[in-house]
Structures are given as C-alpha cells and as structure tokens.
C-alpha cells in the first residue's frame, strides 16, 4: 500500500463545492476549465523559460501548482454536476494534463546545476506513468491513479523544487529531489501496471 496525495482528493473536492453552482450558473463548461488550466500552465512555463533567474516566478510556482490542481479537480466535478461528461472531454483532460506537466517541468532544465538528462528522464517517466494509468482501461480495469508519485504528488514535488531554486540551494539538493522523484515514478509505474492486470479467479475445486 503506497500513500499518494491523490487520496486526499475527496476532501479537496469538498472545499471546492461552493464554486460549482456559480460556474454552472454562468454556463462555464468542463472543457473550458480544462483548456484554461492548460493555457495558464503553458503561459507560466513560457514565463519561467524566458526568465529562469526570476525568484518571484519560482516562488509563485507552488501557488500556481495548487491553482492548477484545483482547476483539474473542478473540471471533473463540473462535468458530473452538469451531466456534461463526454468522451472528448475525457481525452482533452488527459492530453491537457500531459501538456501542462511538460510546460511546467521543462523550464527547470534552465536552472544552473540541474542535471538535464535526469530532468528529462523524470518528465518522460511521468508521461509513461500516466500512459500506464490510461492503458489500464485496455486491460478491462479502471483508470489507475495509484501512487506514490501521481499527478498531485508531482505537483507537490516540483513546487518544493521551485522553492529550493528560489532560495538558491546548492544544485546537489535539486538533483537529489529529482532522483527521489524518479525512483518513486518507477514504483508508481510498477503499481499501476500490477493493479491494472485482471485478477483471474481460482478454478473451482472438484
């Protein structure tokens, strides 16, 4: 059993409940929220890439990660609340998440001392982990969100990494965090594949 911040999602959703009625009343659609989260992530990533020395942007990244997680939760809640769940919306949500992840993770490559191959390995394994979560559907399972390094956990980890960058800690600490994230991603990938596999019932005894 591995802990993941994703397990706190029900409680987080309760905090967001007051927003739902207001969004629905204004005819805001789930896909609009998904696109907003993606475009804001791309914009923030571009800002970081253009100004990698900006302490303010790095300090603001944990806050932005929290906002992004809130938007990611709201789009699904809104889809359920307004009965607007669609296949297109599900695909858009998955694609949007991966684009947002890349936009917010890759600017770390411009930080002095960061091991770029390590960062790229983390980004690629994160993508593979989410692919495994979706591929579980092909095995007859449900979409897997197992941890310990799911989407919410990565948001926390990179928010922490951004704080280390902002306070100019030695690069060895930055790369240590990335190494831990990489190892936890391997664990997460194993968990998602294992738990997606169908469990065959034991043959009846004669």
Can you walk me through this structure?
This protein has 206 residues and is an all-alpha fold. It has a single domain (5-196), classed as Up-down Bundle (Four Helix Bundle (Hemerythrin (Met), subunit A)), CATH 1.20.120.1760. Helix content is 71%, strand content 0%. It has seven helices and no strands. The protein has helices spanning 9-25, 30-50, 55-81, 87-105, 116-135, 151-166, 171-196. Helix 5 runs parallel beside helix 7 (171-196). It is globular and about 50 Å long. The relative contact order is 0.15. Residues 200-206 have low confidence and may be disordered.
Brief digest:
The chain has 206 residues and is mainly α. The chain is built from seven helices and no strands.
| Major sheet summary line | none
Oligomeric category: single chain
Q: Which second-level CATH architecture applies?
A: Up-down Bundle
For the CA atoms, what is the radius of gyration?
Answer: 18 Å
* Helix/strand/pairing category: mainly alpha
Order of helices and strands: HHHHHHH
Query: What distance lies between the first and last C-alpha atoms, to the nearest angstrom?
Result: 34 Å
Helix content range: over 70%
Q: Which descriptor suits the 3D outline? A: globular
The CATH class, by name, is Mainly Alpha
Low-confidence spans: 200-206
Number of strands: 0
How much is the average pLDDT?
Answer: 91
How many domains? The number is 1
CATH-defined fold name: Four Helix Bundle (Hemerythrin (Met), subunit A)
State the fourth-level CATH superfamily: CDP-alcohol phosphotransferase transmembrane (TM) domain
Query: Percent of residues in beta strands?
Result: under 5%
Per DSSP, the total helix count is 7
Keywords: Membrane, Transferase, Transmembrane, Transmembrane helix
Pfam family, one: CDP-OH_P_transf
Transmembrane segments: 33-50, 57-74, 114-139, 160-190
GO cellular component, one term: membrane
């Amino acid at each position: 059993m591995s802990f993941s911040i994703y397990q706190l999602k029900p409680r987080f959703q309760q905090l967001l409940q007051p927003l739902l009625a207001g969004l629905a009343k204004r005819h805001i659609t789930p896909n609009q929220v998904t696109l907003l989260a993606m475009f804001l992530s791309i914009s923030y990533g571009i800002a970081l890439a253009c100004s990698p020395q900006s302490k303010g942007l790095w300090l603001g990244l944990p806050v932005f990660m929290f906002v992004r997680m809130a938007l990611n939760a709201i789009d699904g809640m809104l889809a359920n609340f307004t009965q607007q769940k669609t296949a297109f919306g599900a695909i858009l949500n998955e694609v949007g998440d991966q684009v947002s992840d890349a936009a917010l993770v890759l600017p770390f490559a411009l930080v002095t001392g960061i091991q770029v191959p390590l960062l790229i390995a983390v980004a690629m394994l994160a993508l593979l982990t989410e692919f495994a979560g979706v591929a579980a559907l092909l095995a007859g399972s449900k979409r897997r969100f197992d941890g310990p390094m799911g989407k919410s956990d990565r948001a926390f980890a990179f928010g922490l990494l951004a704080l280390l960058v902002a306070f100019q800690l030695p690069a060895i600490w930055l790369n240590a965090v990335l190494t831990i994230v990489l190892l936890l991603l391997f664990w997460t990938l194993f968990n998602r594949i294992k738990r997606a596999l169908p469990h065959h019932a034991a043959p009846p005894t004669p």
